[in-house]
Write a structure and sequence with these properties.
Elements: H1 6-23, H2 29-33, E1 40-47, H3 54-70, E2 74-75, E3 78-86, H4 97-109, E4 113-118, H5 122-133, E5 141-144, E6 172-174, H6 179-192, E7 198-203, H7 207-222, E8 226-229, H8 241-249, E9 254-258, H9 265-276, E10 285-287, H10 295-299, E11 307-310, H11 315-320, H12 323-336, H13 344-361, H14 366-374, E12 380-381, E13 392-393, E14 407-412, E15 415-421
Parallel strand pairs: 1-3, 1-4, 4-5, 5-6, 7-8, 7-9, 9-10, 10-11
Antiparallel strand pairs: 2-3, 11-14, 12-13, 14-15
Helix pairs in contact: 3-12, 3-13, 4-5, 6-7, 8-9, 13-14
Amino acid sequence: MRADNGWVKRLLTAAVAVLLTAAAGCATTDDRARPAGGRTLVVALDLPFQGAASDTSESVANAADIYLDEIGAMAGPYRIELRRYDNATATKGSWDDATCVRNATDHVAATDEVAVLGAANSGCTKLQLPTLNQDPAGPMLMVSHSNTNPGLTKPWEQGEPEKYFPTGRRGYARVITTDEYQGAAAAQFAARDLKVGRCAVLHDNQTYGQGVAEAFAEEAARQGVTVLDRGAWDARATTYTALFQAVKATDADCVFLSGIYDNNGGQLVKDKVAVLGPNSGAVPLIVPDGFFGFRDFQRLPAAEGAYLTFGGLGLAQMKAAGGAAARLLADYRARHGSEPASAYALYGVQALQVILAAVARSDGSRRGVRDQVFEGTGVSVPAAQAMLGKDVRIDPATGDVNVRDLSVLRMTGGAETFLKAWPLP
Protein backbone atom coordinates (compact mmCIF):
# COMPACT_ATOMS: atom_id res chain seq x y z
CA MET A 1 0.00 0.00 0.00
CA ARG A 2 1.38 3.39 -0.98
CA ALA A 3 1.34 6.01 1.80
CA ASP A 4 0.87 9.73 1.24
CA ASN A 5 1.46 10.80 4.83
CA GLY A 6 5.05 11.96 5.16
CA TRP A 7 5.91 10.14 8.40
CA VAL A 8 4.51 6.85 7.09
CA LYS A 9 6.45 7.23 3.85
CA ARG A 10 9.66 7.82 5.74
CA LEU A 11 9.08 4.72 7.83
CA LEU A 12 8.44 2.63 4.73
CA THR A 13 11.49 4.03 2.95
CA ALA A 14 13.71 3.22 5.91
CA ALA A 15 12.25 -0.28 6.15
CA VAL A 16 12.89 -1.02 2.47
CA ALA A 17 16.48 0.21 2.76
CA VAL A 18 17.05 -2.13 5.72
CA LEU A 19 15.51 -5.05 3.85
CA LEU A 20 17.78 -4.47 0.84
CA THR A 21 20.85 -4.39 3.06
CA ALA A 22 19.75 -7.53 4.88
CA ALA A 23 19.10 -9.27 1.57
CA ALA A 24 22.63 -8.45 0.52
CA GLY A 25 23.93 -10.43 3.47
CA CYS A 26 25.60 -7.69 5.45
CA ALA A 27 22.89 -6.26 7.68
CA THR A 28 24.56 -6.49 11.04
CA THR A 29 23.07 -4.55 13.96
CA ASP A 30 25.86 -1.98 13.68
CA ASP A 31 25.24 -1.48 9.96
CA ARG A 32 21.51 -0.93 10.44
CA ALA A 33 22.13 1.62 13.15
CA ARG A 34 24.30 3.83 10.94
CA PRO A 35 22.63 7.10 10.02
CA ALA A 36 22.03 8.03 6.37
CA GLY A 37 24.40 10.42 4.68
CA GLY A 38 27.51 8.28 4.36
CA ARG A 39 29.96 8.33 1.47
CA THR A 40 28.34 8.84 -1.95
CA LEU A 41 29.00 6.27 -4.67
CA VAL A 42 27.89 6.50 -8.30
CA VAL A 43 26.32 3.85 -10.52
CA ALA A 44 26.66 4.74 -14.21
CA LEU A 45 23.80 4.10 -16.66
CA ASP A 46 25.36 3.39 -20.07
CA LEU A 47 22.49 3.35 -22.58
CA PRO A 48 21.50 4.64 -26.05
CA PHE A 49 19.55 7.80 -25.22
CA GLN A 50 19.23 8.81 -28.89
CA GLY A 51 17.59 7.08 -31.82
CA ALA A 52 14.92 4.40 -31.91
CA ALA A 53 15.94 2.95 -28.54
CA SER A 54 15.69 6.26 -26.67
CA ASP A 55 12.18 5.58 -25.29
CA THR A 56 13.31 2.30 -23.75
CA SER A 57 16.50 3.83 -22.34
CA GLU A 58 14.56 6.71 -20.78
CA SER A 59 12.19 4.18 -19.22
CA VAL A 60 15.10 2.24 -17.73
CA ALA A 61 16.62 5.42 -16.29
CA ASN A 62 13.27 6.67 -14.98
CA ALA A 63 12.48 3.36 -13.30
CA ALA A 64 15.94 3.28 -11.72
CA ASP A 65 15.39 6.81 -10.37
CA ILE A 66 12.05 5.80 -8.86
CA TYR A 67 13.48 2.68 -7.26
CA LEU A 68 16.38 4.61 -5.78
CA ASP A 69 13.92 7.12 -4.29
CA GLU A 70 11.88 4.27 -2.84
CA ILE A 71 14.84 2.88 -0.91
CA GLY A 72 16.11 6.23 0.26
CA ALA A 73 19.05 6.21 -2.18
CA MET A 74 21.06 4.04 0.21
CA ALA A 75 22.88 0.69 -0.10
CA GLY A 76 24.23 -0.31 3.28
CA PRO A 77 26.15 2.70 4.63
CA TYR A 78 26.57 4.29 1.19
CA ARG A 79 24.49 6.99 -0.47
CA ILE A 80 23.90 6.15 -4.15
CA GLU A 81 23.63 8.43 -7.17
CA LEU A 82 22.95 7.53 -10.81
CA ARG A 83 24.85 9.10 -13.70
CA ARG A 84 23.68 8.88 -17.32
CA TYR A 85 26.01 8.14 -20.23
CA ASP A 86 24.67 8.17 -23.80
CA ASN A 87 26.36 5.54 -25.99
CA ALA A 88 24.40 6.54 -29.13
CA THR A 89 24.97 9.31 -31.64
CA ALA A 90 22.44 11.40 -33.52
CA THR A 91 24.16 10.59 -36.80
CA LYS A 92 23.91 6.85 -36.35
CA GLY A 93 20.62 6.85 -34.47
CA SER A 94 21.75 3.93 -32.31
CA TRP A 95 24.69 2.80 -30.19
CA ASP A 96 28.05 3.76 -31.63
CA ASP A 97 31.35 1.85 -31.44
CA ALA A 98 33.60 4.83 -30.73
CA THR A 99 31.19 6.26 -28.17
CA CYS A 100 30.99 2.95 -26.32
CA VAL A 101 34.79 2.78 -26.14
CA ARG A 102 35.05 6.39 -24.96
CA ASN A 103 32.39 5.83 -22.30
CA ALA A 104 34.32 2.89 -20.88
CA THR A 105 37.42 5.07 -20.54
CA ASP A 106 35.32 7.76 -18.87
CA HIS A 107 33.90 5.26 -16.39
CA VAL A 108 37.38 4.26 -15.31
CA ALA A 109 38.45 7.91 -15.01
CA ALA A 110 35.42 8.87 -12.86
CA THR A 111 36.77 7.85 -9.47
CA ASP A 112 33.39 8.09 -7.71
CA GLU A 113 31.82 5.45 -9.98
CA VAL A 114 31.81 1.89 -8.63
CA ALA A 115 29.69 0.02 -11.24
CA VAL A 116 27.99 0.30 -14.62
CA LEU A 117 24.39 -0.62 -15.40
CA GLY A 118 24.32 -1.56 -19.08
CA ALA A 119 25.17 -1.56 -21.81
CA ALA A 120 21.88 -2.24 -23.56
CA ASN A 121 23.49 -3.82 -26.64
CA SER A 122 25.82 -6.81 -26.54
CA GLY A 123 28.10 -5.36 -29.20
CA CYS A 124 28.68 -2.22 -27.14
CA THR A 125 29.35 -4.29 -24.02
CA LYS A 126 31.96 -6.36 -25.83
CA LEU A 127 33.83 -3.15 -26.69
CA GLN A 128 33.66 -1.83 -23.13
CA LEU A 129 34.48 -4.87 -21.03
CA PRO A 130 38.25 -5.12 -21.66
CA THR A 131 38.72 -1.50 -20.53
CA LEU A 132 36.57 -1.95 -17.43
CA ASN A 133 38.27 -5.24 -16.65
CA GLN A 134 41.75 -3.67 -16.72
CA ASP A 135 40.76 -0.79 -14.45
CA PRO A 136 43.67 -0.50 -11.93
CA ALA A 137 41.11 0.02 -9.13
CA GLY A 138 38.90 -2.85 -10.30
CA PRO A 139 37.88 -4.79 -12.27
CA MET A 140 34.87 -2.51 -12.50
CA LEU A 141 31.53 -4.29 -12.20
CA MET A 142 29.10 -4.15 -15.12
CA VAL A 143 25.58 -5.63 -14.88
CA SER A 144 23.35 -5.64 -17.95
CA HIS A 145 19.57 -5.80 -18.07
CA SER A 146 19.36 -6.69 -21.76
CA ASN A 147 22.57 -8.26 -23.15
CA THR A 148 21.68 -11.67 -24.53
CA ASN A 149 24.78 -12.70 -26.52
CA PRO A 150 26.02 -15.97 -24.96
CA GLY A 151 29.71 -15.25 -25.55
CA LEU A 152 29.80 -12.59 -22.84
CA THR A 153 29.63 -15.24 -20.14
CA LYS A 154 30.17 -18.66 -21.73
CA PRO A 155 32.18 -20.28 -24.54
CA TRP A 156 30.55 -19.33 -27.83
CA GLU A 157 32.78 -17.92 -30.53
CA GLN A 158 36.57 -18.25 -30.59
CA GLY A 159 38.20 -16.72 -27.53
CA GLU A 160 34.92 -16.07 -25.71
CA PRO A 161 34.36 -15.14 -22.99
CA GLU A 162 38.01 -14.98 -21.86
CA LYS A 163 38.98 -12.20 -24.27
CA TYR A 164 36.65 -9.80 -22.48
CA PHE A 165 38.44 -10.36 -19.18
CA PRO A 166 42.19 -9.86 -19.85
CA THR A 167 42.97 -9.84 -16.11
CA GLY A 168 41.54 -13.34 -15.79
CA ARG A 169 38.96 -12.03 -13.29
CA ARG A 170 35.38 -11.69 -14.43
CA GLY A 171 33.46 -8.49 -13.78
CA TYR A 172 30.32 -8.83 -15.90
CA ALA A 173 26.85 -10.13 -14.99
CA ARG A 174 23.37 -10.03 -16.49
CA VAL A 175 19.79 -10.62 -15.38
CA ILE A 176 18.21 -11.92 -18.60
CA THR A 177 18.04 -15.10 -20.69
CA THR A 178 20.63 -15.57 -23.45
CA ASP A 179 20.30 -15.92 -27.22
CA GLU A 180 20.81 -19.64 -27.61
CA TYR A 181 17.55 -20.16 -25.73
CA GLN A 182 15.70 -17.35 -27.49
CA GLY A 183 16.77 -18.33 -31.00
CA ALA A 184 15.96 -21.98 -30.36
CA ALA A 185 12.56 -21.13 -28.86
CA ALA A 186 11.64 -18.98 -31.87
CA ALA A 187 12.51 -21.87 -34.20
CA GLN A 188 10.49 -24.33 -32.12
CA PHE A 189 7.53 -21.95 -32.13
CA ALA A 190 7.78 -21.55 -35.92
CA ALA A 191 7.84 -25.31 -36.46
CA ARG A 192 5.35 -26.47 -33.82
CA ASP A 193 2.82 -23.64 -33.59
CA LEU A 194 3.03 -21.96 -36.99
CA LYS A 195 3.76 -25.22 -38.85
CA VAL A 196 6.18 -23.55 -41.27
CA GLY A 197 8.47 -25.56 -43.50
CA ARG A 198 10.72 -23.05 -45.27
CA CYS A 199 12.04 -20.00 -43.41
CA ALA A 200 14.20 -17.13 -44.64
CA VAL A 201 16.61 -16.01 -41.91
CA LEU A 202 18.16 -12.54 -42.20
CA HIS A 203 20.36 -10.65 -39.72
CA ASP A 204 21.72 -7.12 -39.30
CA ASN A 205 25.39 -8.18 -39.34
CA GLN A 206 25.90 -7.22 -35.69
CA THR A 207 26.92 -9.39 -32.74
CA TYR A 208 23.40 -9.79 -31.38
CA GLY A 209 21.70 -10.39 -34.73
CA GLN A 210 24.24 -12.94 -35.90
CA GLY A 211 24.06 -14.84 -32.62
CA VAL A 212 20.27 -15.16 -32.57
CA ALA A 213 20.19 -16.04 -36.29
CA GLU A 214 22.70 -18.83 -35.74
CA ALA A 215 20.73 -20.28 -32.83
CA PHE A 216 17.46 -20.05 -34.80
CA ALA A 217 18.92 -21.71 -37.89
CA GLU A 218 20.47 -24.60 -35.97
CA GLU A 219 17.26 -25.38 -34.07
CA ALA A 220 15.11 -24.90 -37.17
CA ALA A 221 17.12 -27.61 -38.92
CA ARG A 222 16.58 -29.93 -35.96
CA GLN A 223 12.85 -29.21 -36.15
CA GLY A 224 12.75 -30.13 -39.85
CA VAL A 225 12.43 -26.55 -41.11
CA THR A 226 14.47 -25.66 -44.20
CA VAL A 227 16.55 -22.51 -43.69
CA LEU A 228 16.55 -20.70 -47.02
CA ASP A 229 18.91 -17.81 -46.44
CA ARG A 230 21.22 -16.57 -43.70
CA GLY A 231 22.36 -13.33 -45.25
CA ALA A 232 22.53 -9.80 -43.85
CA TRP A 233 20.49 -6.69 -44.55
CA ASP A 234 22.18 -3.34 -45.05
CA ALA A 235 21.00 -0.93 -42.36
CA ARG A 236 21.75 2.01 -44.67
CA ALA A 237 19.57 0.82 -47.55
CA THR A 238 16.57 2.91 -48.57
CA THR A 239 14.54 -0.07 -49.77
CA TYR A 240 14.49 -3.84 -49.27
CA THR A 241 12.04 -4.65 -52.06
CA ALA A 242 14.63 -6.60 -54.06
CA LEU A 243 15.68 -8.51 -50.95
CA PHE A 244 12.15 -9.73 -50.28
CA GLN A 245 11.48 -10.43 -53.95
CA ALA A 246 14.42 -12.83 -53.76
CA VAL A 247 12.89 -14.38 -50.64
CA LYS A 248 9.55 -14.69 -52.43
CA ALA A 249 11.21 -16.61 -55.24
CA THR A 250 12.23 -19.31 -52.76
CA ASP A 251 8.61 -20.02 -51.73
CA ALA A 252 9.40 -19.17 -48.11
CA ASP A 253 6.50 -19.52 -45.68
CA CYS A 254 8.27 -17.70 -42.84
CA VAL A 255 10.67 -14.78 -42.34
CA PHE A 256 12.89 -14.41 -39.27
CA LEU A 257 14.55 -10.98 -38.95
CA SER A 258 17.39 -11.26 -36.47
CA GLY A 259 18.75 -7.91 -35.31
CA ILE A 260 17.79 -4.64 -33.69
CA TYR A 261 14.99 -2.35 -34.80
CA ASP A 262 17.47 0.57 -34.76
CA ASN A 263 19.06 -0.86 -37.91
CA ASN A 264 16.32 0.37 -40.26
CA GLY A 265 13.86 -2.19 -38.95
CA GLY A 266 10.85 -0.06 -39.84
CA GLN A 267 11.65 0.03 -43.55
CA LEU A 268 12.53 -3.65 -43.46
CA VAL A 269 9.15 -4.63 -42.00
CA LYS A 270 7.22 -2.35 -44.36
CA ASP A 271 8.94 -3.88 -47.40
CA LYS A 272 8.42 -7.41 -46.09
CA VAL A 273 4.67 -6.78 -45.95
CA ALA A 274 4.62 -4.99 -49.33
CA VAL A 275 6.25 -7.95 -51.08
CA LEU A 276 5.24 -11.00 -49.03
CA GLY A 277 1.92 -9.89 -47.63
CA PRO A 278 0.61 -9.23 -44.12
CA ASN A 279 2.13 -11.03 -41.18
CA SER A 280 -1.17 -12.78 -40.51
CA GLY A 281 -1.06 -14.21 -44.04
CA ALA A 282 0.87 -16.97 -45.76
CA VAL A 283 4.30 -15.69 -44.69
CA PRO A 284 4.38 -14.82 -40.98
CA LEU A 285 7.10 -12.57 -39.60
CA ILE A 286 9.05 -13.51 -36.47
CA VAL A 287 11.46 -11.12 -34.75
CA PRO A 288 13.55 -11.43 -31.58
CA ASP A 289 13.74 -9.01 -28.65
CA GLY A 290 15.90 -6.63 -30.68
CA PHE A 291 12.51 -5.35 -31.91
CA PHE A 292 10.90 -5.49 -28.46
CA GLY A 293 9.85 -2.33 -26.66
CA PHE A 294 10.23 0.08 -29.58
CA ARG A 295 7.33 2.49 -29.75
CA ASP A 296 7.96 3.12 -33.45
CA PHE A 297 7.64 -0.61 -34.15
CA GLN A 298 4.48 -0.86 -32.05
CA ARG A 299 2.89 2.03 -34.00
CA LEU A 300 3.91 0.67 -37.41
CA PRO A 301 0.86 -0.66 -39.31
CA ALA A 302 3.04 -3.17 -41.15
CA ALA A 303 4.10 -4.71 -37.82
CA GLU A 304 0.55 -5.90 -37.08
CA GLY A 305 0.44 -9.66 -36.64
CA ALA A 306 4.21 -10.10 -36.24
CA TYR A 307 5.44 -12.55 -33.62
CA LEU A 308 8.15 -11.59 -31.14
CA THR A 309 10.27 -13.53 -28.71
CA PHE A 310 11.53 -11.87 -25.55
CA GLY A 311 14.08 -13.36 -23.15
CA GLY A 312 11.99 -12.55 -20.12
CA LEU A 313 8.46 -11.63 -19.08
CA GLY A 314 6.38 -8.73 -20.38
CA LEU A 315 5.06 -5.83 -18.31
CA ALA A 316 1.57 -7.32 -18.11
CA GLN A 317 2.85 -10.63 -16.73
CA MET A 318 5.13 -8.93 -14.19
CA LYS A 319 2.34 -6.63 -13.07
CA ALA A 320 -0.14 -9.51 -12.73
CA ALA A 321 2.30 -11.37 -10.50
CA GLY A 322 2.11 -8.52 -7.98
CA GLY A 323 4.95 -7.86 -5.59
CA ALA A 324 7.81 -5.45 -6.13
CA ALA A 325 7.31 -5.10 -9.90
CA ALA A 326 3.64 -4.15 -9.55
CA ARG A 327 4.46 -1.60 -6.86
CA LEU A 328 7.16 0.02 -8.95
CA LEU A 329 4.89 0.15 -12.01
CA ALA A 330 2.22 1.91 -9.93
CA ASP A 331 4.80 4.48 -8.82
CA TYR A 332 6.00 4.85 -12.41
CA ARG A 333 2.47 5.61 -13.63
CA ALA A 334 1.94 8.06 -10.79
CA ARG A 335 5.11 9.97 -11.66
CA HIS A 336 5.09 9.79 -15.47
CA GLY A 337 1.43 9.28 -16.33
CA SER A 338 2.06 6.09 -18.32
CA GLU A 339 3.74 2.72 -18.15
CA PRO A 340 7.39 2.26 -19.21
CA ALA A 341 8.09 1.76 -22.89
CA SER A 342 9.01 -1.87 -22.29
CA ALA A 343 9.70 -4.52 -19.68
CA TYR A 344 13.40 -3.66 -19.97
CA ALA A 345 12.65 -0.91 -17.44
CA LEU A 346 11.99 -3.54 -14.77
CA TYR A 347 14.96 -5.63 -15.87
CA GLY A 348 17.04 -2.47 -15.52
CA VAL A 349 15.89 -2.12 -11.93
CA GLN A 350 16.68 -5.79 -11.37
CA ALA A 351 20.23 -5.13 -12.58
CA LEU A 352 20.40 -2.14 -10.23
CA GLN A 353 19.25 -4.33 -7.34
CA VAL A 354 22.14 -6.72 -8.00
CA ILE A 355 24.59 -3.82 -8.05
CA LEU A 356 23.22 -2.33 -4.83
CA ALA A 357 23.33 -5.70 -3.06
CA ALA A 358 27.04 -5.89 -3.95
CA VAL A 359 27.65 -2.29 -2.87
CA ALA A 360 25.92 -2.86 0.47
CA ARG A 361 28.25 -5.76 1.31
CA SER A 362 31.41 -4.08 0.04
CA ASP A 363 34.05 -1.73 1.41
CA GLY A 364 32.90 0.89 -1.13
CA SER A 365 35.76 0.32 -3.57
CA ARG A 366 35.39 -0.85 -7.16
CA ARG A 367 37.33 -3.99 -6.43
CA GLY A 368 35.26 -4.61 -3.33
CA VAL A 369 31.96 -4.21 -5.21
CA ARG A 370 33.08 -6.55 -7.96
CA ASP A 371 34.35 -9.15 -5.49
CA GLN A 372 30.98 -9.41 -3.78
CA VAL A 373 29.51 -10.73 -7.04
CA PHE A 374 32.33 -12.97 -8.21
CA GLU A 375 34.02 -14.25 -5.06
CA GLY A 376 32.56 -16.67 -2.54
CA THR A 377 28.84 -17.33 -2.80
CA GLY A 378 28.04 -14.20 -4.81
CA VAL A 379 25.02 -11.94 -4.34
CA SER A 380 21.30 -12.55 -4.36
CA VAL A 381 18.06 -10.58 -4.15
CA PRO A 382 15.12 -12.32 -2.41
CA ALA A 383 11.84 -12.78 -4.26
CA ALA A 384 9.98 -10.34 -2.00
CA GLN A 385 12.14 -7.47 -3.29
CA ALA A 386 13.27 -8.72 -6.71
CA MET A 387 11.64 -7.20 -9.79
CA LEU A 388 11.50 -10.68 -11.34
CA GLY A 389 9.39 -11.94 -8.45
CA LYS A 390 11.74 -14.84 -7.78
CA ASP A 391 14.91 -15.33 -5.79
CA VAL A 392 17.54 -13.81 -8.08
CA ARG A 393 21.09 -15.15 -7.84
CA ILE A 394 24.15 -14.41 -9.96
CA ASP A 395 26.44 -17.35 -10.59
CA PRO A 396 29.87 -16.18 -9.36
CA ALA A 397 31.58 -18.51 -11.83
CA THR A 398 29.92 -17.06 -14.94
CA GLY A 399 27.90 -13.93 -14.15
CA ASP A 400 24.70 -15.47 -15.50
CA VAL A 401 21.41 -15.25 -13.60
CA ASN A 402 19.54 -18.27 -12.29
CA VAL A 403 16.14 -17.04 -13.53
CA ARG A 404 15.36 -17.97 -17.14
CA ASP A 405 12.08 -16.84 -18.66
CA LEU A 406 11.05 -16.56 -22.28
CA SER A 407 7.86 -15.19 -23.79
CA VAL A 408 6.24 -15.31 -27.22
CA LEU A 409 4.21 -12.20 -28.03
CA ARG A 410 2.24 -10.92 -30.99
CA MET A 411 1.69 -7.43 -32.30
CA THR A 412 -2.05 -6.89 -31.92
CA GLY A 413 -3.73 -3.51 -32.23
CA GLY A 414 -0.39 -1.73 -31.90
CA ALA A 415 0.55 -3.53 -28.69
CA GLU A 416 2.96 -6.33 -27.82
CA THR A 417 0.40 -8.86 -26.63
CA PHE A 418 1.49 -11.86 -24.57
CA LEU A 419 0.80 -15.12 -26.39
CA LYS A 420 2.49 -17.76 -24.27
CA ALA A 421 5.48 -18.56 -22.11
CA TRP A 422 7.92 -20.88 -23.85
CA PRO A 423 9.47 -23.69 -21.80
CA LEU A 424 13.27 -23.68 -21.61
CA PRO A 425 15.49 -26.72 -21.06
